[in-house]
Amino acid sequence: MLRSRSRAKKTWNVFLVLLVAGLIFFPFSAEESLNAVAVPLAEVIKVPLTVVSLIKQKLDAGREVVQGLINLHDQNQALADELIRVKIEENRLKEIAASVDRYRVLFDFQQQCPYSTIVAQVIGRAPTNWHRSVVIAKGKRDGVIAGMGVITPSGVVGRVLKVNRTFSVIQLILDRNNAITAVVQRTRDEGIIQGTDTGQVVMKYLPPLSSVETGDVVVTSGLDNRFPKGMIIGIINQVEKKTVTPFKSATLTPHADFSKLEEVVVLLETTSSDERDGECFMQYKDERERGT
User: How far is the C-alpha of 205 from the C-alpha of 220, rounded, in Å?
Assistant: First the structure.
């Protein structure tokens, strides 16, 4: 029993000595062994790791470029949308400015005109009868009745043909079914103004010995209840004498611009409220001539 204990104690002492020796000498030998293996291995692994790192850097840079392009596209789209909005607003403001200018002219015209009038916006035009009629945004509730004369500051336009509560149909002087008594301002020869199928304006039944000529001004005669005397209708551009009739006729260029008819003035009354009979139109004509 004692011998076995002594042997066990001796074995334990040998183990302790070996353990201490291992703790003292193993780290140095292990480090040298690891270095001998790790250094070449690190050199081998370094190349693919470097390549992978470069690829990652390129990918990150490419991702930043793509994101930048996406952001730039979004910014350009936003700027394009803003530009469209600004242009729309600019056009709207231009239309408002043009409308204000037109209504200022109409207001000035009404102020110096001795007749009761009302301004009406043109809201419709028949595509198939472009030169025959227009629709205005004034009707019975505004005091408009059939037969009233319609003008602009530039010239005679036509007459009220049909009236609804809120709108009216205007028959233009370009319509062959419309007739206005007129007089040549220079010669005082009377005639009838009518339209044609082609949208022209002619003056019929001029005296055969009339001296009317190109450039003469034709105005309303005041012999009907639609227009006061002296309102300009147009300028004669051609005089004809047909053998089948004893009368002369003349073709007119209307003074009103029917291609730009946006607002008109309806003559609610043709009796002057003061002594300025006809002045509201002839005064405007003189200003126009001085400006040309």
Answer: 15
Task: Identify residue 105 by its one-letter amino acid code.
Answer: V
Amino acid identity, position 285: K
CB 110 within 8 A of CB 122: no
**Would the pLDDT of 130 be above 90?**
no
| Among candidate residues 166, 158, 152, the one with its CA nearest the CA of residue 132 | 158
Distance of alpha carbon 46 from alpha carbon 51, whole angstroms: 9
How many distinct helices (H) and strands (E) make up the chain? 2, 12
187, 216 in Cβ contact below 8 A?
yes
Nearest to 156 by CA among 189, 123, 183: 183
| CA nearest neighbour of 160 among 145, 141, 177 | 145
Burial class of residue 102 in the structure, from the number of CB atoms within 10 Å of its CB (0-12 exposed, 13-18 middle, 19+ buried): middle
Assess whether pLDDT exceeds 60 at residue 21: no
3-state secondary structure of 17: helix
Of 130, 162, 133, 135, nearest to 147 by C-alpha is 162
Give the separation between CA 21 and CA 14, rounded to whole angstroms: 11
* Cα 269-115-118 angle, rounded to 5 deg: 75
- At 278, the amino acid letter reads G
State the pTM of this model: 0.68
What's the average model confidence in pLDDT over 25-42?
52
Whether residue 170 is predicted with pLDDT greater than 90 in this model: the reply is yes
Structure tokens at 181: 């008594």
CA 93-94-100 angle, 5° bins: 90
Please report which confidence band the pLDDT of residue 180 belongs to, taking 50, 70 and 90 as the band edges. very high
